[in-house]
Amino acid sequence: MKLFKKILIGLFILIILIGISVFLWLNSFKPDLNAELHLKGLKNEVEILYDDYGVPHIYAQNEEDLFYAFGYAHAQDRLFQMELLRRLADGRLAELFGEKAVASDKFFRTLGFRKHAKWTLDSLVSKNPDAPFVKASQAYIKGINAYIEQGKMPLEFTLAGIPKKPFTLEDSYIISGYMGFTFAEAFRAEAIATFIHDKYGEAYLQDVWSQWPKGGPTIPVKGKDSTSKVARNLASMANQLAVIEATAPFPPFHGSNGWVISGSKTKSGKPILSNDTHIAFSQPSVWYEAHLECPGFKFYGNFLAGTPLAALGHSQYGGWGLTMFENDDVDFFREKANPQNQNQVWYKDHWEDLKVYEETIKVKDAADVKLAIKSSRHGIIMNESFDKMADQKDPIAMWWVFHQFPSHMLEVFYDISHAKNATQAAKAVSNLSAPGLNFMWGDTEGNIAWWAAAKLPKRPKHVNPMLILDGSTGNDDPMGWYDFSENPQILNPQRGVLYTANNQPADMGTGFVPGYYVPADRAKRIEQLLFTDKKDWTTDQVRTVINDVTSPNYKGLLKDIIPIIFAEELSPLAKKSIEKLIPWNGTHNLEEVEPTIFYRFLYYIFVNTVKDELGNEVFLSFEHNTNFKRNMISMIKKEDSPWWDNIHTPEKETRRQILTKSLNEAAASLEKQLGGDIDKWQWEKVHTLTHKHPLGILPVVGSFFNVGPFPVPGGRETINNLDFPIDSTGIYQVSYGPALRRILDFANPEQGRSVLPTGQSGNVMSKHYNDQARMFVEGGSRGELMNRTDIEKVQTGKTLLKP
After folding, report:
1. Strand partners of residue 550
2. Which of 46, 54, 323, 679 has the fewest Cβ atoms within 10 Å of its own Cβ atom?
3. Is residue 395 part of a domain?
């Protein structure tokens, strides 16, 4: 017995020693924020003060040293994120993760971000080496490489076996290219639209794929069978792309809210800017915050990994927020292949040679994959990038605005960060080609402005750019470009408020701007809350708006459909569900059961209307498509929509029958999932948020890197837009939402308020890895400090960088 006791004590001590050793080992990867370092290439000493949330406040004597130091600090906190993002954009994930990453690598190699970056460098950077944005960007890259050379490599580099490799400015541009791709809804949508149109006809398409529902809020400003087979193969592209996005180590962009309130309507007398960018959640957080200061430049910004210039930010003069423009900047062309020569396609009256080059994808623990990348005059041929398109006879070419111009992205963000007024900001954003972005501006002079920035193509009048076009005739080809002056934009609107929520702009000389504009729910709710006579707005009051969880359109939908349901055919639990939904005003609070019932009801409506026509694979991508989401309510309200009929049954189903059936099925599935007590079907039990780290998939240790899950309020297209796919599980795991919530009163630009979904640091042992996670789900905020006295009061670290 004594021997057994000694063995137990020995094992206990051994476990403690192992635990301590593991803890010390993990802690050894955490950087020291109180340090004095010597870096080659610095001209003068630089100070970095870290506040109580790990935000670096960098003070330099010149701008090149400032961006050098920022590159160092950024890499210290987020090098693993930078590394994975450049590998993702460059199609080099399979080198780390093996064959499961080949599909992603094939797709991104085909998009050719590296080639485009080389073109940009040759066109803009090499010819302008002394341009301020070039010097700042190159200094940032030097800072990253200084950290790689003498700093601690992240834990993930050890676990994943990632070798050290210096960064280049080319890498920053390929990351910018990936940012452009994630905004292009056409990649996911146009194949599905063509499938519906070609197989079922215009009547089916118009109910689920029209441009913008009549009366929806706009941004006020000044061979059929063979074809349907092709379209179905193309529609599989959307599903495969959805899988690539879901497993990507860096999340795609999805939408955003933003508004600016004029000083005539605020208590301070100066504009208030609010912005929350909607991006798929991940860990670390997408945005990285930093305050940069040197003589002539004082700036607080939000930066993407591996990019030197802030995509969001403000100075003491003015600042901006972003949302997606959602303009359609991608067209797909079906080329006519030469049956005698696979590298030729027909154009107008002759065969043209395709351009061809080969890429080699290196795969961990497997043979290299050879990929022939071809392009026509219309763009890159996409067939080889997707499994079910590889054997497609006719090539499908992708024409993308991004590919038509060298990227001015870094120049745009450099110039706007240095802008002192709306005139200078407008000039800065006018150079953007793709992706299309809405810039909302406010400044201390009292100006508020909005610009829909992008190169907008002129298309022939007959062209519907949401369908796949004919590349053989030349009749569908773009015809040129609109001047930026014709883009949707407004300066100092009379009503004193401007906003964008990815909704459609009103006509602006160019006529309708084709795009993948999202449902009107958020736009309508923003108008309800902001378009009032209120003239004393404060930042705290604006925060209640940015955290709002009400969808104004669901109440109207239920009011329309509940009266026509066959009440006598409902189960007892379905009848109780109706009783809950009748008074519901569309709120999505944690304790409520109504959202749980509503989305389950909605899922079965989708299954019983569109799934029989689309099939399982296309349905998966269709349900979460912005066009369907935008038109879903109007379709459900339409009594004679052809979608109500099940094509697999001899009888013709009616809307009333389908709605009744769907509610019964929803109630039955909820009883099976959550029990028979309807009052226990709270939203918090099914709607959760987990911030997933790329290594979160690893067995045993993976959950150590993830943050969450958290029950969260909000829902689909509420202002607090915590969205999710709707599927058979009845569990709504949030896929994307606000990647930050940021509010700024220009009466005091040194005291902005913000919150990140998790935290600043990418180091799992840092307290700043997840110290904002609870604050985020509870709708709180903390300071974006720019005043040195305020910063020193909460200072937690000081790093001196010396030449």
Report:
1. 587
2. 679
3. no
Tell me how far apart the 2 most distant CA atoms of the chain are, in Å.
96
| Predicted pLDDT at 328 | 86
**pLDDT tens profile 386-442:** 666 656 678 889 999 999 999 999 999 999 999 999 999 999 999 999 889 999 999
Q: Is the CB of residue 253 less than 8 Å from the CB of residue 277?
A: yes
- Token pair recorded at residue 355: 């351009």
Angle at 179 between CA 175 and CA 181, to 5 degrees: 115
Q: Is the pLDDT of residue 585 over 90?
A: yes
Tell me the pLDDT of the chain averaged across its residues.
Answer: 88
Closest CA to 236 of 622, 549, 494: 622
Q: Angle at which helices 572-581 and 655-674 pack, to 10 degrees?
A: 100
Those residues with Cβ within 8 angstroms of residue 515's Cβ, 6 or more apart along the chain or in another chain? 325, 326, 327, 328, 436, 504
Task: Identify whether 635 is part of a domain.
Answer: yes
* Distance (Å, whole) CA 343 – CA 354: 5
- Number of domains into which the chain is organized: 1
The structure tokens listed for 175 are: 């990351």
580 in any annotated domain: yes
| CATH code for position 587 | 1.10.1400
DSSP 619: H
Tell me the backbone φ, ψ of residue 443, rounded to 5 degrees.
-145, 170
Taking the C-alpha atoms of residue 742 and residue 776, their distance in angstroms, rounded to an integer, is 11
Polymer length in residues for the chain: 803
Could you give the CA distance from residue 446 to residue 634 in angstroms, rounded to a whole number?
40
Tokens of 328: 């359609």
State how far the Cα of 380 lies from the Cα of 116, in Å rounded to an integer. 12
Report the range out of 98-102, 648-652, 685-689 with the highest average pLDDT. Answer: 685-689
**Helices 202-209 and 626-637, packing angle to 10 deg:** 110
Q: Taking a C-beta distance cutoff of 8 angstroms, is the pair 305, 250 a contact?
A: yes
Q: What is the pLDDT of residue 165?
A: 95
CA distances (Å), origin 374, targets 166, 351, 394, 395, 469:
30, 15, 13, 9, 18
Which alpha helices (H) appear in 218-307, and where do they start and end?
Answer: 224-247
Cis previous bond, 284, omega within 30: yes
Residue for token pair 């569109």: 610
The owner of tokens 């093996």 is: 98
In a domain, 616, yes or no: yes
User: What Rg, from alpha-carbon coordinates, does the chain have?
Assistant: 27
pLDDT at 225: 38
Q: What DSSP line would sit under 743-799, residue for residue?
A: EEETTSTTEEEEE-SS-S---TTSGGGSTTHHHHHTT--EEEE--HHHHHHT--EEE
In this structure, what are the phi and psi dihedrals at residue 519, rounded to the nearest 5 degrees?
Answer: -55, 160
DSSP conformation letters of 179-206: HHHHT-THHHHHHHHHHHHHHH-HHHHH
Q: How far apart are CA 440 and CA 312, in angstroms?
A: 10
Domain of 715 in residue numbering reads as: 552-733
